[in-house]
Design brief:
This protein is an alpha/beta fold. It is built from 26 helices and 17 strands. It has a seven-stranded mixed β-sheet with strand order 8-7-6-9-10-12-11, sandwiched between helices.
Length: 629
């Protein structure tokens, strides 16, 4: 076991060693006993969501291991007393994790990352691939373990399997042992000579010392702190989200490939596979969800016009959204929404979301992977066993625990849970005003304002009620303010006729969400907000998506004769033209969907009382809302 150098002829000329690198290599050769060979194991690849599980190192002829939850003193001492550190891909990965989780660690200034050193001698790929190419073998008993299996070994240890921890440490030490052999061969191919008269250094002897196969004797079962994971009841009990109805959809790019679908009622779930858009829509609407959570891109990158590569805006605006760039920054390997293989999925997701929102059903784009991290469930790919186990431990109930289901159904459950997190205010939004957000679960409660939305037909008393709430300390905004700004830019009069015309134009061109965003932006930062003049089901959907159960919708109505009288008195119309003007305004296309708002509203208020009696009624309604939140 060890290195067996194969005579491989380099395919490219090897460049001379830069002066700085030569000095660093010379330092390693001069003090090999102080070179720290180090490798970490983590729960995943993201420095933002994942964490270190095991750190292994060899220095001074001794292998040592730190297991998360143990005393970190020996690791800190080893790092502080080393003159150089050797890793594989450690500059981008190991070093970042170590400094993040152990800010006091003093890593040496000299860091030899073998990945870059190997590239100088035409060796590319992951460490395991290079080991195979060079004939290095320190993995006789753990040849079947890879990085993903290492994550599962840690989860098995957390659930009481000590042999899994032993195997994880063996895997980690094999990685470290092989580093010395790779280092030796890379130096040989570089033609590096430190001292013609000095003793030749063999770094394999230092990375794979005699005790490398002797496991630590002080290993213990995982502590409660390590095994502790949040549960559904702990996170959501007492909140409206605990009883919410959510549909989760793990969407595929084609109707020929069935989609994972689930209905989550509280913590109980039912799953199935559904193929066509028509069936997805029908069964989702029948479930009467508070929100739909879809694992699929639901918008284009800002500026893009179509999903396809022949889009004339492709070169200018690219194929990635801001949320995908942010996930990349956090270390998440995410596919750009308009990558060729993603285009049909993105188009389908956008189409379905638009259809649901036009019905007034809120839709969020979900990221199940982050939820699985929070619930301490291995990511997608771990297998049905682990996803079921993790979901069951979290507190999700249903037949899926006892019968065979697909990965797509299990992912749909996780997607639905993202909806629960969001409705509970335990979420983060990654997006822009032009790109609806991707929802990320977050255990830190987001501070959402209380938002009251008011809809209803013309002259029902919407603005009067909004003014009552404004007197109660609510920041006031309304959709027509933004429309008036648009009219002003077009040099048009701000009257009802032009407002209705522009309102219809905005809705028909798919810019209703943009209008809602701008309307809410006017009162950003306030703790209590009243939004006057909701007219389309999309408005209701947007406000639920934005504020969850902190949004309350009041539909205001009154007898037609009463509304007509108010309209005439407000505009001081002559009796001769009053009826015609009221009927024209009431029957405009922009008012056509107002009746649909009544079914979406959380409270219906029949405003047939004198103006001075309204305040008491509205305060009673507000007290009811506060009791529900």
């Amino acid at each position: 076991m060890g290195s067996k150098l194969k005579p491989i002829k380099p395919t490219r000329t090897i460049k001379p060693i830069p002066k700085k690198l030569y000095g660093e290599l010379s330092l390693c050769c001069e003090y090999p006993e102080k070179v720290l060979f180090l490798d970490i194991e983590t729960t995943g690849l993201s420095h933002f969501y994942d964490e270190i599980t095991v750190v292994g190192w060899s220095i001074g002829g001794k292998s040592q291991t730190f297991v998360k939850g143990d005393d970190v003193t020996e690791l800190l001492d080893a790092a502080r007393h080393s003159v150089a550190m050797v890793t594989y891909n450690g500059i981008r990965f190991d070093q970042r994790f170590l400094k993040q989780e152990h800010p006091s660690i003093e890593l040496p200034d000299v860091h030899i990352d073998l990945m870059y050193l190997c590239r100088r001698v035409n060796l590319t790929g992951g460490q395991k691939a290079i080991e195979i190419e060079l004939g290095i073998d320190f993995r006789e008993e753990i040849g079947d373990v890879d990085g993903f299996a290492a994550v599962l070994l840690w989860h098995e240890y957390l659930r009481g399997n000590m042999s899994s921890l032993n195997r994880l440490i063996q895997y980690n030490r094999a990685d470290i042992a092989a580093m010395g052999s790779i280092f030796d061969i890379a130096l040989q191919r570089l033609g590096f000579v430190h001292d013609l008269f000095g003793k030749k250094v063999k770094f394999q002897d230092w990375s794979a010392p005699k005790n490398m196969n002797s496991l630590p004797t002080n290993l213990k079962s995982a502590s409660n702190e390590l095994t502790r994971a949040p549960t559904f009841r702990e996170l959501f009990d007492g909140l409206p989200a605990a009883k919410s109805k959510i549909v989760g959809i793990d969407l595929t790019g084609s109707e020929t490939r069935p989609t994972g679908w689930c209905a989550l009622k509280g913590s109980h779930v039912e799953t199935k596979m559904i193929a066509t858009d028509a069936d997805i829509i029908a069964q989702t609407v029948a479930a009467k969800p508070d929100v739909i959570s879809i694992d699929s891109p639901l918008c284009l990158p800002a500026g893009r016009q179509t999903v396809f590569d022949d889009d004339p805006t492709r070169d200018e605006f690219g194929i990635m959204r801001q949320c995908e760039r942010e996930l990349k920054r956090r270390g998440i390997n995410v596919y750009p929404s308009l990558l060729p293989s993603m285009q049909k999925l993105t188009a389908r997701g956008i189409r379905l979301a638009k259809g649901f929102r036009e019905l007034g059903i809120p839709v969020i784009e979900s990221y199940p992977g982050a939820a699985q991290d929070i619930m301490r469930i291995p990511r997608k790919g771990a297998g049905e066993k682990w996803l079921k186990l993790g979901l069951g431990e979290f507190g999700v109930q249903g037949d899926f625990l006892r019968k065979k289901v697909t990965h797509d159904e299990l992912d749909a459950i996780t997607s639905a849970l993202v909806g629960t997190f969001h409705l509970a205010g335990l979420s983060e939004e990654l997006g822009t005003q032009e790109e609806p957000p991707l929802i990320i679960p977050d255990l830190k409660v987001s501070k959402r304002p209380t938002v009251i939305g008011i809809s209803g037909p013309i002259a029902a008393g919407k603005t009067t009620i909004a003014q009552v709430l404004e007197d109660e300390g609510y920041a006031y905004t309304r959709f027509s303010i933004i429309i008036d700004e648009i009219l002003s830019k077009r040099n048009l009069k701000a009257d009802r006729k032009n407002r209705q015309k522009i309102g219809l134009e905005i809705n028909e061109t798919g810019r209703q969400r943009e209008l809602a965003e701008r309307t809410i932006a006017r009162v950003s930062g306030f703790n209590k907000i009243v939004v006057d003049g909701l007219r389309f089901p999309d408005d209701h959907a947007f406000l639920v998506e934005k504020f969850g159960f902190n949004f309350h919708h009041i539909f205001v109505d009154a007898q037609k004769s009463t509304r007509k009288k108010r309209y005439i008195e407000r505009l001081k119309l002559k009796t001769q033209s009053a009826n015609a003007e009221f009927e024209r305004a009431s029957s405009s296309e922009v008012e056509a969907k107002v009746d649909k708002m009544q079914k979406l509203a959380h409270e219906n208020y029949f405003n047939n009382v004198p103006k001075y009696d309204i305040a008491g009624d509205i305060i009673t309604i507000m007290n009811k809302f506060q009791g529900e939140t």
